[in-house]
Design a protein that fits this description.
- This protein is an alpha/beta fold.
- It contains 24 helices and 18 strands.
- The longest helix has 26 residues.
- 47% of the residues are buried.
- It binds zinc ion.
- The site of zinc ion has 7 residues, from loops.
Length: 657
C-alpha cells in the first residue's frame, strides 16, 4: 500500500485541523482501509476559550461523516481532560458515555463524537488514525492470529485482545498502552477489529498507518496469502427474474417490510458463491464488528429462508433468554445470500444500503480467502457478534433513523423516462424512496438521472425480446417489481382520417397499445410477488373521453389502452394489484410536444401558444411534475383502496366536466 500524501495537495490545507481533514480523506480514498463510514481519526489542539482560558480539545470524527468526504465540521471538539478522566472510571454505560461526549463538546451543534473518542483521548500523541484495514483483519482473524500479529509488528505496536467497541475497550487500551508502550510504539492492533497509528504530525500518523498496513500485506505475500485465485465463471444466461422475485418476497416477509435485492454475478462473486466449501467458510461471520450492523450475523447459504430464520431465532434466544424484559429481536432477514446460480445477493431497504452491503462483502471475501490461506478464517464467537448486533447504541441509532420513506424497499418501472412525464415520474418515485428502472428508446436514458436507486436502460419497448431482457436486468439489479408506470407513447402530426396512412396508424398502435400489453403480460408474474401489493398506473389522455379532430390514431390507441387497463383492474385485483389511469391534457414540457406541434395545435384552435397552454377551467398550465406527483400518490397509501379509477389532471376540461 502506497502513501497518497502529496505536497502540492497538502499545501491547500493550512493548520492542524485542516491537515487532519486532508489525511483523513487520504485514508478514505483507500477502500482496503476504510469502507462507508468506517474508521476514525482525531487531532488534539489547544485553544483559548471565550473566558480567555486555554484548554485542550480532541477533534474526533463525528458520526454520520465519511472519511473520504469529511470536512472540518465533521470533527466535533470535545474537552480532552474530561475524556481522560472518564477513562479512569471503573465502568461507564455506553449510553451514559455518549451523553458525556455530547455534553462536553464546545460546539453545541457539532455531530456526536465517535464512540471511540475516549480511545483517541488516552493515546498521548497529537494525531491518531484508526482503520479496519483488510490486511490487518486477515492477519488477526485466523487460528494463530495473535502470534502472527506479534511476529509482524513486534515492539512497534501494542496488541489488544478483542473487546467490543465502547467504554470497556477504551479502558482496556488505556491500561495496556500505559503498561506496554515505549518510545518505539507507533501503533496499536486490536485483534479481530483493526489498527491504530499515531504521530506528532498528520503526515507522520498517516504514513505510519500505511507502513504498518503494508507490513501486514507483505506478510500475507510472503505466506502465499495475498494473490487471490478466482477461477473463470460463466454468468447465468437463463431467465432468473421469477426466482429472484420469489426470494426477495420471502426475505421481505420475514423482515416485515419490503427489501431490495441485488444480484452480483461478476466472476469473483460467482466463484466465491460456487466454492465447494462456501457453506463452511462463507457462514463464519463478519470480519470486524464495524460490519455487523450492515451485513448481519452471517450470510445465508442457498435459499432456505425458513431454516435460516430458525437458526437466527435460536441464536437470539441463546444470547437473550429474557428477551421479553430486555431486547426484542431485530428483523431476522439475511442481508447477504450466497447462491451458486444467483451469485452474491445483497439486501437493503434502499439501493444504497444494498450496495454498501455488497462493497463490504466484496472485502469480506478477500479477508476470508486470505485468512484461509493463513490456516483458516476465524470470525468472532457468536456471543461477541450478538453483543454488537444488539448493542444499545446501535439500537438507539436504528430508532433515531425514524420512519422510512413511503416506497422504501420498492421498485418501480417507468417507460418513456428520458424526458417529460416519464422523467418527472421517476423523480417523484425516487423522492419517495423507490428504486426506479427507466426504459427509453433514447440512449441518454442511462444517465438521465444521477441517483444510486436509478437504473436507466435503453430499450425499444416495441421489441418484445428487448423488453423482456430489460425486465431481467432490472430484477437482477433491484430484486423485483412493485410499481409499473405505463408512460411511453407517441403523438404523430395531425392527420384527418381521409389522409391517415396505414403505416402511421399501425406504428401509433404498436407503441401506445401493443407494447403495453406485452409489458403488462410479462410484468404480471413479477407484480404478483410485490411484498406490499403492486400498483400499475397508465398515462392515459383527455382524448379518451374528448377526442380531437386530426388525432384519430392517438385517440384510438389511448382509448384502447384505457379499456386494457380497466380489464387489468378486474383481472388483477385478486393478486392485490391496483390498476389506475390518469388522464393528463395539454402537458407541454414533454417529448411529444415539439414547438412545431404546439404551434400547429394552437393555430388549429385560433389561439396563441400562451392561450393554448392555459386553455382549461382553472386557467393554469399543467406541467409534467403535476402529473408525476399524482402518479406517485396513486401508488401510495392514500389510494390503497382504489383500483380501476380514471383521474383527470388537465386543469379542468369543459368538454369532460
Ligand atoms: Zn474501530
Amino acid at each position: 500500500m502506497k502513501s497518497l500524501w502529496n505536497d502540492t495537495e497538502a499545501a491547500g490545507y493550512q493548520g492542524d485541523l485542516a491537515l487532519r481533514v486532508y489525511t483523513s480523506r487520504l485514508l478514505g480514498r483507500e477502500p482496503a482501509l476504510v469502507l462507508h463510514g468506517g474508521g476514525n481519526t482525531s487531532v488534539k489542539i489547544r485553544e483559548r476559550n471565550i473566558l480567555g482560558a486555554e484548554e485542550d480539545l480532541l477533534y474526533v470524527k463525528g458520526s454520520g461523516w465519511d472519511l473520504e468526504t469529511i470536512e472540518a465540521a465533521g470533527f466535533p471538539p470535545v474537552r480532552l481532560d474530561h475524556l481522560r478522566a472518564l477513562a479512569r472510571l471503573p465502568a461507564l454505560g455506553d449510553v451514559e458515555m455518549v451523553n458525556e461526549l455530547r455534553t462536553h463538546m464546545t460546539i453545541a451543534s457539532a455531530p456526536t463524537p465517535s464512540v471511540e473518542a475516549i480511545l483517541h483521548a488516552i493515546i498521548p500523541h497529537r494525531y491518531v488514525d484508526h482503520t479496519h484495514a483488510d490486511a490487518v483483519i486477515a492477519l488477526t482473524n485466523n487460528g494463530a492470529g495473535e502470534a502472527r500479529t506479534r511476529e509482524v509488528f513486534g515492539d512497534d505496536c501494542v496488541i489488544i485482545p478483542y473487546v467490543m467497541p465502547g467504554f470497556d475497550l477504551a479502558r482496556l487500551c488505556a491500561e495496556r498502552f500505559a503498561a506496554q508502550a515505549n518510545e518505539h510504539t507507533i501503533g496499536m492492533v486490536l485483534l479481530n477489529h483493526g489498527i491504530f497509528s499515531f504521530g506528532a504530525t498528520a503526515r507522520e500518523s498517516y504514513e505510519r498507518m500505511i507502513a504498518l498496513v503494508s507490513r501486514a500485506e507483505d506478510y500475507l505475500k510472503k505466506h502465499a496469502a495475498w494473490e487471490l485465485d478466482f477461477p473463470a465463471q460463466s454468468a447465468p444466461t437463463n431467465a432468473q427474474r421469477q426466482e429472484i422475485a420469489a426470494l426477495r418476497l420471502e426475505a421481505s416477509r420475514v423482515a416485515g417490510f419490503a427489501l431490495l435485492l441485488s444480484c452480483h454475478q461478476d466472476e469473483r462473486s460467482l466463484a466465491f458463491a460456487r466454492r465447494d466449501d462456501v457453506a463452511s467458510i462463507g457462514a463464519r461471520g463478519p470480519a470486524t464488528p464495524d460490519h455487523v450492523i450492515r451485513t448481519k450475523r452471517v450470510p445465508m447459504i442457498g435459499r432456505n429462508i425458513p431454516q435460516y430464520i430458525a437458526e437466527y431465532k435460536e441464536y437470539f434466544q441463546q444470547h437473550e433468554p429474557n428477551a421479553r424484559d430486555r431486547k426484542t429481536m431485530l428483523d431476522p432477514a439475511p442481508r447477504v445470500i450466497l447462491d451458486p446460480a444467483l451469485g452474491v445477493c445483497t439486501l437493503g431497504r434502499s439501493a444504497r444500503d444494498a450496495d454498501i452491503v455488497a462493497d463490504i462483502y466484496a472485502h469480506t471475501i478477500e479477508v476470508i480467502l486470505r485468512a484461509q490461506a493463513l490456516g483458516g478464517y476465524q470470525a468472532l464467537p457468536a456471543s461477541d457478534i450478538f453483543d454488537v448486533e444488539y448493542w444499545d447504541l446501535e439500537q438507539a441509532k436504528l430508532r433515531q433513523a425514524g420512519k422510512p420513506a413511503v416506497f422504501a424497499g420498492e421498485v418501480a418501472l417507468v417507460t418513456g423516462t428520458a424526458s417529460g412525464i416519464g422523467l418527472a415520474c421517476a423523480r417523484s418515485l425516487l423522492a419517495r424512496g423507490a428504486a426506479v428502472i427507466g426504459l427509453d428508446i433514447a440512449p441518454s436514458i442511462a444517465t438521465a438521472l444521477k441517483h444510486p436507486a436509478w437504473l436507466g436502460l435503453p430499450c425499444d419497448i416495441t421489441d418484445e425480446a428487448a423488453l423482456i431482457q430489460a425486465l431481467e436486468t432490472g430484477v437482477r439489479r433491484f430484486g423485483g417489481l412493485d410499481m409499473l408506470v405505463l408512460n411511453a407513447g407517441m403523438f404523430p402530426p395531425g392527420k384527418r382520417i381521409d389522409a391517415l396512412d396505414s403505416a402511421t396508424w399501425h406504428k401509433v398502435l404498436t407503441v401506445n397499445l401493443d407494447a403495453n400489453l406485452v409489458l403488462m403480460r410479462e410484468a404480471h408474474p413479477l407484480l404478483k410477488q410485490a411484498p406490499n401489493g403492486a400498483r400499475v398506473v397508465a398515462i392515459g389522455s383527455r382524448n379518451v373521453t374528448a377526442p380531437g379532430p386530426g388525432a384519430a390514431a392517438y385517440s384510438a390507441s389511448k382509448a384502447a389502452l384505457n379499456q386494457l387497463i380497466r380489464v387489468a383492474a378486474l383481472e388483477w385485483g385478486q393478486d392485490g394489484i391496483r390498476v389506475n389511469t390518469v388522464h393528463p391534457d395539454a402537458v407541454f414540457d414533454t417529448g411529444i410536444w415539439t414547438p412545431e406541434v404546439l404551434a400547429a395545435r394552437a393555430a388549429h384552435y385560433g389561439l396563441t401558444v400562451e392561450q393554448y397552454k392555459t386553455r382549461n377551467v382553472l386557467r393554469r398550465e399543467v406541467e409534467s411534475r403535476h402529473v408525476a406527483e399524482l402518479v406517485a400518490e396513486l401508488c401510495g397509501p392514500l389510494f390503497a383502496r382504489t383500483t380501476g379509477a380514471q383521474i383527470p389532471i388537465d386543469g379542468g376540461s369543459d368538454r369532460v366536466i
